[in-house]
Amino acid sequence: MKIKLAVLWSLMLFTHIGIFGQVETKGERDHLKEQETESNETFYRLGSQRTWPFFSFLNDPGDDAKTLGIEFESYLNIGKYEIKNISYFEVDSYPRAIPGQPNGNPEETTDEIVPADGINDLLMGFWFSRKGAHHGKHHLTGGFAAMFPTASDKTLGSGKFSLGPSIDYEFESGRWFAGAIALQVWSVAGPSDLKAVNMLMIKPFVVFNVVERFDLIYMPYGVSVYWDKPAGEKVYLPLGGGGQYQIPLGKKTTLNLGLQFFKNVIRPTKGTVYDLRFLVEFVL
């Protein structure tokens, strides 16, 4: 199975197939503004595709986990309105069940360490706004999030269908671009013997343009709160950051390459301590 995962990772990275967790940089926003008139006349547009290879380090080095995040951002125009969608899933290689990974955090029914490789649950967000309102200094829009039980292994997914509200806030001023996506989901369907989902996820982002094509960034996997867990086991709070470099590919495509390092300063007892996160992004 590990050999198959390695092949799949390579195919995704080299064919560009595909928390959440990344938003437009200054160069991307300039590109989007130039395309705004054209995109307003287009029913559907794929805005970007992001690939997130990242590595999670635990107290026991033998428990270190590997993840490949696949993310698509797209836009749908209906009448006077634009619908923004972000779809995210992962290909995981976990040496054991890790609290907060997957979303939903299913109960551990045994002390036995059981490794798992495969795909996790699909997480999607939808936000609604008027056309042309996306590039102001402040942009706040509401919508909803949905999580689907697509995991290939029970330790990698919640086994539940989940829904809830979501907001997307963005702020732009000079060299700064910042904001957050926040979503709260509850399980609404699925097997009754599986643990219910009650999760808040906040995905903050801070981008500071240092020089042309290079940004300092803070774009973690997300601040997660699992409301039904005991005190001291509910929250992941990552601190850290890194940088990214933008490479123009022709007139309409940009390649962004990024690297970040985080420490989860608040985490569950058996949660991940450090995360090393790479980015390969194509802005279309």
Commentary on this structure:
This protein is mainly β. It has one domain: monomeric porin ompg (Porin). The protein is 10% helix and 55% strand. The chain contains 2 helices and 14 strands, in the order H-H-E-E-E-E-E-E-E-E-E-E-E-E-E-E. The chain has helices at 2-15, 26-40; strands at 44-57, 65-78, 81-94, 116-119, 122-130, 138-148, 161-173, 176-189, 198-211, 214-218, 223-226, 235-249, 253-266, 274-283. Strands 1, 2, 3, 4, 5, 6, 7, 8, 9, 10, 11, 12, 13 and 14 form a 14-stranded antiparallel sheet that branches. Strand 8 and strand 9 (198-211) form a beta hairpin. The model is unreliable at 1-24 (pLDDT under 50).
Structural class: mainly beta
> Biggest sheet, in brief?
14 strands, antiparallel
- Tell me the count of domains: 1
CATH topology: Porin
Radius of gyration: 19 Å
How large is the share of residues in beta strands? Answer: over 45%
Roughly what percent helix? 10-25%
- Order of SSEs, N→C? HHEEEEEEEEEEEEEE
Overall mean pLDDT stands at 83
- The number of helical elements comes to 2
Could you say which overall geometry the principal axes of the C-alpha atoms support? globular
- CATH level-1 class: Mainly Beta
CATH-level-4 superfamily name = monomeric porin ompg
What is the strand tally? 14
The first-to-last residue Cα distance is: 33 Å
**Low-pLDDT segments:** 1-24
CATH architecture: Beta Barrel
